[in-house]
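== Polypeptide entry ==
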Amino acid sequence: MMMARSIPTPLWFAAALFPMVVAQIVRLQQFDPAAWIVWDYAGRLGALAVLSAIPAARTVAFRFEPLRIALWEVTVWIVGIVLADHYLGGWIRRTINGLLPATVLGAYPEVQGWLLVVDIVFGLGLVALSEEIVFRRCARHLLQSYLDDGFALVLATSFLFGAYHWWTGFGNIGEAVVKVAC
């Protein structure tokens, strides 16, 4: 039997993606916002659990890295990404999904009341943490030996992140790629 420490990067990366993709597929059949969110969170927590259970993956996914830029630069990047996502990303999503509506298989639920509070407080953090760890750290680690550490690596991980949003249509895939490539 293969020891956990010797699991190659492509295998543990695929193992981490598995619960996220399964949760997406199951979510497509959910019409209750609470059930939809439970499945979303379960997939993300499952991916983080897989990464934490495999020593080689844990080393990559959860290592501490100090900021390489000043806090004010982080703020400028966040504001810039939010604006680019809202204006450019929204236009890309609406245009492409308008031209290819059959590619949209599902949509985010409209949550209200206590569920909205939970989703904003817990969900946004979980989404950000899981996607940054899986697509920025782990995918980067997986592809870095093939693509060095430059623009091609940023594009490849951006396309992988965009592909993860397959169920929301080609327009949202394009929006996700642009957002992450920023």
Remarks:
- DSSP finds seven helices and no strands in the chain.
- The chain has a mean pLDDT of 90.
- The two ends are 42 Å apart (CA to CA).
